[in-house]
Amino acid sequence: MAETTREDYLLPLKALPGNADPVPFLRSMTRVQVWSAAFDYSNLQNIWKQMAVCNTFADDITRHKLLHPHEI
């Protein structure tokens, strides 16, 4: 999976009202859905740990790449 950051979906979302092309936003939402679906949600405590290891909660995106769950 390509590197995904919050900006990957926020920038197309912000551009959507002034741009008639929804494709960039839909593409980013598809990447987010694929990433989210890769986690095992059967254990809530474990999911938080997995997401932390994937840098989900990291604030500095220049230093922390958002990892795909299959990369950990």
Report on this structure:
- The protein is mostly helical and 72 residues long.
- The protein is built from 3 helices and no strands.
- The relative contact order is 0.17.
List keywords for this structure.
72 residues; mainly alpha; 3 helices; 49% helix
Tell me the count of domains. Answer: 1
Beta-strand residue percentage = under 5%
Q: Please, what is the average pLDDT?
A: 81
SS content category: mainly alpha
Regions with little confidence, pLDDT below 50 for 5+ residues: none
Shape, principal axes of CA atoms: elongated
Taken in chain order, the helices and strands follow as HHH
Helix fraction, binned, reads 40-55%
Tell me the radius of gyration. Answer: 14 Å
Total strand segments:
0
Oligomer: single chain
Largest sheet: none
Number of helices: 3
Query: Distance N terminus to C terminus?
Result: 13 Å
What's a quick, concise take on this entry?
This protein is mainly α and 72 residues long.
